[in-house]
Structures are given as structure tokens and as C-alpha cells.
Amino acid sequence: MGRRFKLAFLSGKSWSHSFIKEFYSMSAGIDKIAFFTSPYFIDMTDLANARGEDPNKYLIGIGQQKQAVIPPTQDVVTLAANAASSILTPADKASIDMVILGTESGIDNSKAAAIYVQSLLGISKRARSFEVKQACYGGTAGIQMGMDHLRSHPTSKVLVIASDIARYGLNTPGEVTQGGGAVAMLLTADPRILVIEDKTAFHSDNIMDFWRPLYRREALVDGHYSNNVYVDFFNQTWRDYQNRYQLAIDDFNALIFHLPYPKMGLKALRSIVHESHHPTQLMAAFDAAKTYNSQVGNLYTGSLYLSLLSLLANDTMLKPHDRIGLFSYGSGAQGEFYSARIGDGVKPDDLRQQLNSQLNNRRQLTIAEYEALYETSLPLDGGDRTFDTRTDHSPYILKGRIDNRRQYEYQNGETGSKKEQPAK
Length: 424
Ligand code: COA
Hints:
The chain is of the alpha+beta class. Helix content is 36%, strand content 25%. Strand 16 (396-402) and strand 17 form a beta hairpin. The longest helix is centred in the middle third of the chain and has 23 residues, at 223-245. The chain starts with a helix and ends with a strand.
């Protein structure tokens, strides 16, 4: 929070025009950010060989090197809890007053995954907790709602988590664009990682490019059409943003994108990069920003924010206060282009070390092992089930389901001991 704003706030100063203007221009955004994914992955060359495709189609044509395989012992609740638990202190947990979980692969048609996460992590019960859905746009919707909340409650802390498991089906064209994981972000005033500007443009339209009816575990997708709509929505929101704020491409040090797979963002960037006087810098930033996405695959809601982490950890040119543009897209469809400035507290070496260590410690599966895990899940028509949890050492795991209630467990990694979480 800016000092002048703080003084005005504490002194009860009247809401003059200039005060209101400053109120809405206070600095807020992402103060902490963390990523979590499964301990398992497959190599895209193995998948291409198993599917009778040229590996270069996956490695170059799609831009994917590896793909996270999510075991049945992880769902969007545990992925989210595992991501958020690594950044929250007891003081954060006590002062968070809003928990927003964006997902399109939720576990319940009624109860929000955010409520489970709040309970598993011991976040204050005085928080508002809910789930947001609009395909891959839910995380961004959560961030913008969190920002609105912070503008009117500047001492608040808002936890936004984008958590998803991307499934298209074995032996489908979309299989190479699967993946999963969660990105947790703590939004506060005076943030250290990313100052989110109050500059945004959005566009929505009723489009059938990707959807998942309630009776399906796998998405339905018109893949080539979705590529075209995505680039079109990017161009519409980008032009609208430029007109509203009179900013040009050269006002940005990097542009990052929702990345269901790296090539998709590249197509959007290529459609405007010729407008720049420093196209090489924007292309280099894009290369940095796809680093972890190409190792994990599609996170749906979290993809843009894993790309943000990739950029912060791997771009060697970015400095505090540089402006970046973020394009968020959720099929169906909603697009938003907004801007932000790099915070003073980004530590690229630490971020790189954490992310590389998490990804390098994963176990590679054979395609047969992946297919077996893919087919193991809680039955869609109900019934009890207990999973073998011995090989998943993630802090939070899903043990199974008893009497229609999911059984979550916290495993203390240091001692190997396990603590039951009471069924809610
Ligand atoms: N070497 C290098 N590149 C190759 C290649 C090879 N041997 N073989 C093919 N390619 C390229 C193609 O030229 C194409 O590139 P382009 O997109 O720049 O034209 C790319 O690889 C993909 O090939 P394509 O034939 O289009 O693949 P496909 O028909 O199997 O489908 C998707 C690819 C991405 C459409 C499909 O995986 C899909 O639908 N994924 C889901 C997309 C999605 O989730 N959309 C909604 C979320 S926003």
C-alpha cells in the first residue's frame, strides 16, 4: 500500500476525487507464487513412438517435451493444497480473508474445492471461499476478483489457486496436450512478485471450441478451430487494450500467454510481433516463458501462471518495474489481455532452483504405466475405493472415497508419519 494511501486510510480522510483516484491506483498484485505438479511424467518421444507419430510433431510442431501424469491419488484439491502449502506462513493463514479456486476439472457439482483446501491448510474460517469456472480462464477471473477485493480492503490477503487436470483421452489428437498441476498465488497490497495494473481488456462469445459435458471425464475439442479462435481473441483484446490505454507493443518487455501447449502462444505472438522494434527480445522472453510448460503440459487454468513463473525464473533481461502483458483464454470462450509490472522481490535464481528441483525429481513412466494410471480413478457412478498411496510422497494426497466422501490425508514428509484429515 502506498504511504500516502495508508495515511489517508488511517486518518479517515474524506473521499475526495484525488483520494479515490489514489485508492484505485494503489499497488497490489502477486506477493507470493508457487507451483505443484505430479511426481510422474512421460516423455513425448515415447508417446509419439507409441502412437505411430513422428516425434518432431510433438517436440517441434506442438512444442512439448514432457507431460505430467496425474495419479489417482491427486485431484484438484490436493494439487492446490500442495501448491499453496509451500508459500503460506501461519500469519498468512490467519489473515487470508478470501480463497478463490479456479478450475474446470472440479470434484463436485455443488461444493467448492476451495472449501476443502481452506480446511486442509488451516486457513482462517473467516474467509470467503468459492470456486470459479470458465474453462482455462478461471484463474484469471479469480485474480481480477481478488484485485477488486484488495482495492476496497487493502489490508486483506487473497489466496487464488488455479488447479486442473487436463484430459483428452488416450489415442486422441489432444492426448499430446494433456498435463496437470496447480499454481497458488497470494495477492496483497505492496506485492513483491507482480504489481497488477488496473489496465485490462476482455472479449467473450458463445463458441464451441472446447467443452466437457457433465457426463464426461474427457474434454471435447475442435482443436484447429480453437487455435483460430484463440489467436482471434488475442488480437481483439490486444487492440482493445491499446485503444483504451494508448500503449504500443514497445511499451512491453514481455508478452506471455495461456499455453495449452507452447506452439499455441507462439502463434498468437507471431501475429503481432512485427509491430515491435525489439522483436528478438519478445521472442526470447517467450522462449523463457514456455520453459516449464514444455516440461509439464497443459494446466488449463494454471497454464498462464506457470508461464509467468517460467518467465520470472528464466528471462535474463527483465528488471523490476518492467511491464509485461498477459493473455488469458478460456474456451467457450472468454479472453482477457491485462498488464502488470515486475515486482522488486523476484529472485530468479531461487525460483529456478525450486522449479528445476521439483521437475527433476519426478519419476519417468513408461507409456504402459501411464495408460494404467490414466484408467485408474474414482468410479463416476459412486462407490467406495481405496488407492495405493505408497508411491505418492506429495504432502497432501487423496486416499480414496468412503460413503461418497473423498478421503484426504496429510503426509508429513520429514518423518513419513501420516495424519488423518477428518471427513467434513
Ligand atoms: N515435424 C515438425 N512439425 C510437425 C510435424 C513434424 N514431423 N508433423 C506435424 N507438425 C506440425 C504441424 O505442421 C502443426 O503445426 P502448425 O500448428 O504450426 O500448423 C503441428 O505440428 C500440429 O500438427 P497437426 O497436424 O495440426 O496436429 P493434430 O491434427 O494432431 O492436432 C492439436 C494438434 C493441437 C489441434 C490437437 O492436439 C488438439 O486439439 N489439442 C487440444 C487443443 C486445445 O486444448 N484447445 C483448447 C484449449 S485453448
